[in-house]
């Protein structure tokens, strides 16, 4: 008789124990962005709701911003870095092919024994990371750090009128750990690769190698196609995540969607059927669209404002390049 492999020993449930954020020092208003593109403050506010965004300084790297947010999340959770078993970084602006940004962040914060890897799912990456982290806690126990971090300005063409005014930089992080009661519901996720061209990089990195002097690859998106896809497809994902968690829409305390556009957020809120008392995060107004960092930044902001509190139920809904998406209901720390 062959010996059996011992099963993993995990926790009955997982929950978020703490959240932290890092917002770059430099605040950039719409008038400053309009120095690069033919637009106005009024037009940008009307189309996106964005008033300001943060752009990182040279010393605010992906690694340092991620570590700052991680340190605050660890402090909020009361967990020392050596107790972290795994670090997951959700990012697509880590322009070094290897090693992973998560490994650099783990080293900087002193999580010396943690596994570390990156998740690249664009603006949906953070929710993917939370889902993987929850499964890890339930599967093997321990604590997992999830960091959403982006330097969008590294991949922007500041003269591209379709993207220059939308994006900002920043980092947000959460610590997940064991729980006796459910704190994270089942994830509803997926991708539609047939629309991969809607949000994409202009050229592969190999173009720079093969054709010296070529322009640096940058982010491109078809805003109207993103808008139509988000408002038509994401309400169903949100409702599926609520059903999977066994939570009616009217019982949801907080809605924290990807901070893509205030018009999209308002449309989703209406189409999902959320009641007026549901708190809806709109951190994009002063932070811009920070892709994989937008949901943890918005979570930290809504908790810090006092509009939401510990124990509230929140729907996290990420969507973006891929086109990919992920929704999950969590209990706020």
Task: Describe this structure as you would to a colleague.
By secondary structure, this protein is α/β, with parallel strands linked by helices. The chain has two domains: 13-181, Thiolase/Chalcone synthase (Peroxisomal Thiolase, Chain A, domain 1); 185-332, Thiolase/Chalcone synthase (Peroxisomal Thiolase, Chain A, domain 1, 3-Layer(aba) Sandwich). The chain has helices spanning 30-33, 41-48, 62-77, 101-109, 125-140, 206-210, 223-244, 262-272, 284-287, 294-304, and strands at 13-22, 26-29, 52-55, 84-90, 115-119, 143-151, 169-179, 188-191, 199-201, 219-221, 254-257, 279-280, 313-320, 324-331. The protein is globular and about 70 Å long. It catalyses: malonyl-[ACP] + acetyl-CoA + H(+) = 3-oxobutanoyl-[ACP] + CO2 + CoA. Belongs to the thiolase-like superfamily. FabH family. One of its GO terms (biological process) is secondary metabolite biosynthetic process. The active site is at residues 123, 258, 289.
CATH superfamily descriptor of the largest domain:
Thiolase/Chalcone synthase
Helix content: 25-40%
Termini separation: 47 Å
- Number of beta-strand segments: 14
- Return the CATH architecture of the largest domain: 3-Layer(aba) Sandwich
CATH fold label of the largest domain: Peroxisomal Thiolase, Chain A, domain 1
Number of domains: 2
CATH class of the largest domain: Alpha Beta
Low-confidence stretches are none
Strand proportion, as a percent range, falls in: 15-25%
Please give the count of helices. 10
Strand order of the largest sheet: 1-7-6-4-5
Shape: globular
Q: Structural class, please?
A: alpha/beta
Largest sheet: 5 strands, mixed
Radius of gyration: 19 Å
């Amino acid at each position: 008789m062959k010996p059996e492999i011992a099963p993993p020993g995990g926790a009955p449930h997982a929950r978020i124990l703490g959240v932290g954020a890092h917002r770059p020092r430099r605040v950039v208003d719409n008038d400053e962005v309009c120095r690069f593109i033919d637009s106005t403050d009024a037009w940008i506010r009307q189309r996106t709701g964005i008033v300001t965004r943060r752009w990182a300084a040279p010393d605010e790297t992906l690694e340092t911003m991620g570590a700052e947010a991680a340190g605050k999340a660890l402090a909020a959770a009361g967990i020392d870095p050596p107790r972290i078993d795994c670090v997951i970084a959700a990012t697509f602006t880590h322009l070094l092919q290897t090693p992973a940004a998560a490994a650099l962040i783990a080293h900087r914060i002193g999580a010396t024994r943690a596994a570390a890897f990156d998740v690249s799912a664009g603006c949906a990456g953070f929710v993917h990371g939370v889902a993987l982290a929850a499964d890890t806690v339930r599967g093997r126990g321990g604590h997992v750090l999830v960091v959403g971090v982006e330097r969008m300005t590294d991949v922007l063409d500041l003269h591209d009128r379709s993207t220059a005014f939308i994006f900002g930089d920043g980092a947000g992080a959460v610590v997940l750990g064991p729980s006796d009661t459910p704190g994270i519901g089942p994830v509803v996720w997926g991708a539609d690769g047939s629309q991969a061209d809607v949000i994409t990089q202009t050229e592969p990195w190999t173009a720079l190698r093969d054709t010296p002097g070529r322009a640096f690859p940058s982010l491109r998106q078809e805003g109207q196609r993103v808008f139509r896809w988000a408002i038509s497809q994401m309400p169903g994902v949100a409702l599926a995540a609520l059903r999977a968690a066994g939570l009616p829409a009217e019982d949801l305390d907080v809605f924290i969607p990807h901070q893509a556009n205030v018009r999209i957020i308002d449309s989703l809120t209406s189409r999902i059927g959320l009641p007026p008392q549901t708190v809806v995060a709109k951190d994009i107004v002063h932070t811009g669209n920070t892709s994989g960092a937008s949901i943890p930044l918005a979570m930290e902001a809504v908790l810090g404002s006092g509009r939401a509190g510990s124990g509230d139920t929140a729907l996290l809904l990420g969507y973006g390049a891929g086109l990919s998406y992920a929704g999950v209901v969590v209990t706020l720390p």
